[in-house]
Design brief:
Distance between the termini: 79 Å
Radius of gyration: 31 Å
Largest sheet: 11 strands, mixed
Number of helices: 25
Structural class: alpha/beta
Length: about 650
């Protein structure tokens, strides 16, 4: 197999968001995974009874009081998405969390869907909708007043997850609900990649959500079933006897790689290839996995990617910790890799289910986010509870070993590459190959010494919280370039009615200004509050050498207008004004004396004032009034459209002479 290095046909992961057990965001999720934290909750009898569990059931010897509980499961901000409290109350929590995480993924990608020029698609799936039967259909008054049709169609069915999101965000690309059981969210990623490559959309959101209802309960262990007897998932281990389920949601934002590079997007990782298929009837039963089906899917993804399997140094496995499923998965991986290599022991494997349990439809995207974070941090995180290998897995003769401890992700100089494997009950397999993002050259253009840092929200309280969170983030990451932060906040965030701004030099300065809310450093604007401005232009006597020099050096619009004015003046004057405006070091006094002459003073002021006004206007600051004193009247009249800049300059030159 030849190594294809071109990324023209690759897909960039430009945004991520997720909420997992004991992990409210992707950063805390990675922190827990890399540090080997098992994020499962062992529930007390009091907690279980509070959730409505039968005390007699809790007392059974085979009851396991463990669950992957999603903190803040009932939380939702309905007003942000335009829901009334009543409409929000009949919305499945899976839809609620998917809406919030999809928005977070777009913000992480620095994309405001209202200003994105192209089509955005959605590919997503959800778990079983238990909220409708448990919480809504048990309320006869609600059922009579709303009706079953509206209860189901307004956010309580799998059919409406993706399209609800497209409606709320006004997204016009393909909107497809994906349902392939446990492989749903990774199949959604594959379908999103295909849609992008076919130019059906230009950015795609892909992911999945599962929230168990009733929430926060344990389960009954039965010998031979998929569930673990002790509340631990021991993937690939000799003591593995099953998995356990949890709740979570994950979303990634995807773009064609060349488009992401052209737009200057932050690229978290690159998808080099993906494939999906189904086992068909080639297995012992409908619920069973298949070696041949999995192997064919993995081999197809490798072939389409053009990558040598020997360059893949980690596989995030489905890894449910069942004594039969794990050996079948490793056998399938080995069979696919053996088409190209006989080498052994070069590729680590692991399973995030040992940390957070099995998230059902969200399992695949959780695995993808874990792997992307591992690539970004160049670390291989530990797969938990591995002591001795499952005797049915011949690791010694395979390309694989279980990565049971945190270690640096070393390579031989080739890019770090990984695979993610996901299997669905019913036989739909998905395999995705990802590669670390290439180093991207940063802009060498100097940034302004002061940055305007903007925030906006739908309410005064929300803008306060946004300011607090941004201040905390900047304090935690003082190395951030404030120019990058300011740019993202302006271009990559939707503008809401409650707004706050501060002016700062660097991240630490901005954090301090946000915390103090110093009115001398910024202000807050409420809805309906308009701050009109007037431009006031002085006359002779306001001039001095080097006026506007820093703006000339840093601001392209200002520099272009000054240069244009100097070019026009050069056609009518017998002197060069630029050395007087921006004198060489040591010539300031002489230039100041020259600028006292009217023929120099007035054109210098006109050009400076005109260029400064144009700079403000390029930032969207339009004056409600223009007022000038003496020569400044000419600038005001020029900007008001009374005469052109060229005519204005000729007049002030004549006046000065």
């Amino acid at each position: 197999m030849s190594e294809e290095t071109s990324l023209d046909g690759a897909i960039a992961i430009v945004g991520m968001a997720g909420r997992f057990p004991k992990s409210p965001d992707v950063d805390s999720f990675w922190h827990n995974v890399r540090n080997g934290v098992e994020c499962l909750t062992r529930l007390s009898p009091e907690q279980l009874e509070e959730e409505g569990e039968d005390p007699a059931k809790i007392a059974l010897p085979n009851y396991v009081p463990v669950n992957g509980v999603l903190d803040g499961m009932a939380d939702f901000d309905p007003g942000f998405f335009g829901f009334s409290p009543r409409d929000a109350s009949i919305l499945d929590p899976q839809h609620r969390h998917m809406l919030e995480c999809a928005w977070e993924a777009l913000e992480n990608a620095a994309v405001d869907p209202g200003r994105f020029e192209w089509r955005i698609g959605v590919f997503a799936g959800s778990g079983h909708n238990a909220y409708l039967p448990y919480n809504l259909l048990t309320n006869p008054q609600l059922l009579d007043s709303v009706g079953f049709f509206l209860l189901r169609h307004t956010g309580n069915d799998k059919d409406f997850l993706a399209t609800r999101l497209s409606y709320c965000f006004n997204l016009t690309g393909p909107s497809v609900n994906v349902q392939t059981a446990c492989s749903t969210s990774l199949v959604a990623v594959h379908m999103a990649c295909q849609s992008l490559l076919n130019h059906e959309c230009d950015l795609a959101l892909a992911g999945g959500v599962t929230i168990e209802m009733p929430h926060g309960r344990g389960y009954l262990y039965e010998e031979g079933e998929i569930l673990s007897p002790d509340g631990h998932c021991r993937a690939f281990d000799a003591a593995s006897k099953g998995t356990l389920f949890g709740s979570g949601v994950g979303v990634v934002a995807l773009r064609r790689y060349p488009d992401a590079v052209e737009s200057g997007d932050i690229i978290h990782a690159v998808i080099r290839g993906s494939a999906i298929n189904n086992d068909g009837a080639g297995k012992v039963g409908y619920l069973a996995p298949s070696v041949e089906g999995q192997s064919a899917c993995i081999a197809e993804a490798l072939l389409l990617s053009g990558l040598d399997p020997r360059s893949v140094s980690y596989i995030e496995c489905h890894g449910t910790g069942t004594p039969v499923g794990d050996p079948i998965e490793v056998t399938a991986l080995t069979q696919a890799f053996r088409e190209e290599t006989d080498e052994v022991g070069f590729c680590g494997i692991g399973s995030v289910k040992t940390n957070i349990g099995h998230l059902d439809t969200a399992a695949g995207v959780a695995s993808l986010i874990k792997t992307v974070q591992a690539l970004k941090h160049r670390e291989l995180p530990p797969s938990l509870h591995f002591d001795k290998p499952n005797p049915q897995i011949d690791f010694a003769a395979s390309p694989f070993y279980v990565n049971a401890s945190l270690k640096p992700w070393e390579t031989d100089g080739t890019p770090r590459r990984a695979g993610i494997n996901s299997l669905g009950v019913g036989g739909t397999n998905a395999f995705v190959l990802v590669e670390e993002a290439p180093e991207v050259a940063t802009s060498e253009r100097p940034s302004r010494p002061l940055q305007l840092t903007l925030l906006s929200a739908r309410s005064a309280d929300a803008v306060d919280r946004a300011g607090e969170r941004l201040a905390a983030h900047l304090k935690a990451h003082p190395e951030l370039d404030l120019a990058d932060v300011a740019y993202t906040l302006v271009k990559g965030r939707k503008a809401f009615n409650h707004r706050r701004m501060v002016v700062a030099r660097d991240a630490a300065d901005a954090a301090a200004a946000l915390e103090r809310r110093d009115p001398a450093r910024g202000f807050t604007m409420a809805p309906g509050e308009r701050r009109s401005g007037a431009f006031l232009f002085p006359g002779g006597g306001a001039q001095y050498p080097n006026m506007g020099r820093e703006l000339y050096e840093l601001e392209p619009v200002y520099r272009e207008e000054v240069d244009r004015g100097l070019e026009v003046l050069g056609k009518h004057a017998d002197f060069d004004l630029k050395p007087l405006l921006f004198p060489a070091e040591g010539d300031e006094e002489k230039a100041g004396e020259e600028l006292q002459h009217g023929s120099r003073t007035l054109p210098a002021l006109f050009i400076t004032e005109y260029a400064l006004a144009k700079l403000f206007m390029s930032w969207g600051i339009e004056p409600s009034a223009l007022l000038g004193h003496s020569m400044g009247e000419y600038v005001a009249a020029c900007l008001a459209g009374v005469f052109s800049m060229e005519d204005g300059l000729r007049m002030v030159l004549k006046r000065g002479q």
